[in-house]
Protein 1
Amino acid sequence: MSTAEETDGDSTPWGEVTPEAARRLLVAAVEAFAERGYHATTTRDIAGRAGMSPAALYIHYKTKEELLHRISRIGHDRALLLLETAAGRDGTAAERLADAVRSFVSWHAERHTTARVVQYELEALGDEHRVEIVALRRRTDAVVRRIIGDGVRAGEFDVPDVPGTTLAVLSLCIDVARWFNAQGSRTPEEVGTLYADLVLRMVGARK
Amino acid sequence: MSTAEETDGDSTPWGEVTPEAARRLLVAAVEAFAERGYHATTTRDIAGRAGMSPAALYIHYKTKEELLHRISRIGHDRALLLLETAAGRDGTAAERLADAVRSFVSWHAERHTTARVVQYELEALGDEHRVEIVALRRRTDAVVRRIIGDGVRAGEFDVPDVPGTTLAVLSLCIDVARWFNAQGSRTPEEVGTLYADLVLRMVGARK
DNA sequence: CGCGAACCTGAGCAAGCGCTTAGAGCGCTC
DNA sequence: GAGCGCTCTAAGCGCTTGCTCAGGTTCGCG
């Protein structure tokens, strides 16, 4: 944990953001956006949380919207990586689906501050940036749809409506970011396990 | 449909809001809040959509936040009424749960513009108003939990974690407001039916 | 030591914000 | 038909917003 730097795990969440001042600003922005929402957050608030003057923000980022885009891009990349890793492992469709849901959901719970911004501030992005992010989300959808489709073809699952069920599964997982509370009684891993079970039921996985 | 006025159904969505100018403003606010979010919406935009000057808004509402509160209050009341009606009917727990989910979800799809504001702009409310709305949401949660609990006690459902499953079911239903698109390929009723089936699977209802 | 690049601040600009005020128009009653 | 209450508008106030810019500090490097 101390010497790890670019191992791409979750050890240093914003390790790819340099220099350090830019990372501090970005972390401050994540907190502020998650608490109040993008539009209700001022650049003065972000700079203040990072211990800087408002003008310092514009040395590292062209606009407030660019900050949101960086957060959204990195967050989507990480979430997609989690899903694709689980989907690519060996095992039955049920095992891969459970694994994917468990890691995707526990990430949304563990890092719910980031996830809230990533999942619910999409519409504040500018047109070009939004197009880029929407493409990532389509890949996310495709990964889940593929696992469910595999399970249906293998006779493991009973799913009358694959696209609809895919949508519902992803919607269920994403919404964890909205309600999860760190002070609550469940750990991120517990929520991940619960949700993996619920999703297996949704696709009619044989026990 | 033509002569119905105060029958409390969904025939005249904002029928309880009078006078007509106040209703026009409220409908305009719902559209604007749903499209851009509360904080990104200006009072000039709301008044403009209602065909009035900005000052006209303040004859009918004390502040912009009061508008949001009225929308949120009426929307929560309606959604809660749908759930309680379904929950209070005769039938097995599975029938009541399916009924509740179907009507709750198809309302969120049909009136997704309103529902988006109601469900996702909670945090923009002032402290007192938010407390009031949160109380309504707890009642919503209690209704669903009760049906699921009934089903477990009757041996109809297999649910290891009732509070967790209740949370997941409501989360799934509510999130319909976020992704539903009127131009999409599914009707609100189709989504309601699909979701009722998925929820019955989640609670392990016997076929 | 001298110099340039990188980083940051204090002050502030133009624009837009929520909301207020003075008064106009209109339909109602007595 | 004068007076009154209700509804609405034009104008604008005070403030905050995202963002800029000239200048200062710090640092590595010759």
Note: Residues 42-44, 54-55, 57-58, 63-64 of chain B lie near DNA strand C (CB under 10 Å from a C1').
Protein 2
Amino acid sequence: MSLNVDDPAPGTDTVVIVPSTSADAPTRQRRRGEDLESALLLAVWEEFTDVGFYDLTFEAVARRAGTSRAVLYRRWPGKIELVAAAARYALAKQRGPEPEPTGSLREDLVARLRWANRTDVRSMIAATTHVGAYLAAEGVTFAEVRTMMMPTSSSATFSPIDAAIARGEVDPAHVTPRLASLAFDLFRHEVLLNAQPLTERAISEIVDEIVVPLLTRKE
Amino acid sequence: MSLNVDDPAPGTDTVVIVPSTSADAPTRQRRRGEDLESALLLAVWEEFTDVGFYDLTFEAVARRAGTSRAVLYRRWPGKIELVAAAARYALAKQRGPEPEPTGSLREDLVARLRWANRTDVRSMIAATTHVGAYLAAEGVTFAEVRTMMMPTSSSATFSPIDAAIARGEVDPAHVTPRLASLAFDLFRHEVLLNAQPLTERAISEIVDEIVVPLLTRKE
DNA sequence: CTCGTAAGATACAGACTGTATCCTAGGAGC
DNA sequence: GCTCCTAGGATACAGTCTGTATCTTACGAG
């Protein structure tokens, strides 16, 4: 079942949810449970994508979701938790297929950065980072934040570096944790500094000038 | 002349500036011109350092500076401009000497990252990035923001990479703009993600695992 | 049907924003 | 010394938002 939520005029006191899988379902005026939570998180995410972390307000989210602020505060004590939950929700929703293995380290990395370069993934990174910057002041590490917001899938994800090691292209002795995350670190750095998607040139600079030479060096 | 500003109780309508270079200077009740602007920017910077970009308010800055919000608004239309000006001010004030050249690429890079790791420089980076993220949405590039906030000194600053090229340790063909800024990009990335100073280990990882191997490779 | 719960509406006090207006402290000029 | 001008500082205003509390009643379970 997908939701078609009519955006109510401000001040309207009913929200009409029209279930799209059954034209005969009774019309509901109040949402509950999972339906409500999905609508809330969608509203948060849309608002976050529209205005960013700083300008996002409970008031605006409530308005967008057609609910009252109390409903939001009952679930999430503050903006951090709100955005974190929305990011988690968005991630779960957009679990599109990752790129297929190409057999080439360079192509694998490029494909993955292109995939990450889609708008929703960039928003996800921004959300993670904003939340992380806050929690870092409380002694929470970035790795912990990332785990909190993006639970590691139990399915083994494909790693371009592991594949290249298996093909004998990369010496595992070179692969430190920092080098393993370097491509994505540089990608994130770009995301945080620019509102626009990375150019193809930026992607190939990251891969061809930095990551691949480091990974494939012989000494 | 340095300023000793007594923090007035809220509601107090005079601010006493005691010039420390002359005990006989007349007591002034209102600040003007450069004295005032310095006091304002100092207050902004302290507030920014204390509470960060998000929680910084004109109200709190005005209170801390012992002035009215109108005085701030007369100079800076919004938070971005306010913080940008304060960062510029802080940079000008803390122009401490950069590390001396060591004769070794690695040591030069490490020394510079250690220098950058001081609290005030990290605050500067944070301020630049926050402002930049905002202006990026308006099409301003990060490079432009950085130029705006940290005017390039006309004095030629020492570059570890240039020195290493001169010593024959680095092939200039390898030195792309992205590689030239890599050490500092990775440093900034760490600063943005963590509230604590970088550990010595993180610094040496950046330099020894990534930057130096890339710069000094032969192929 | 009844009952329990939480959705949604609304009120409250406080903080902050952006703007406008007023009084008068400072400094320049004579 | 004086006068004049300007902007510092105080304050008011209307609006938005926050965090919290309270009330009514729509839903869903039994």
Note: The radius of gyration of chain B is 21 Å.
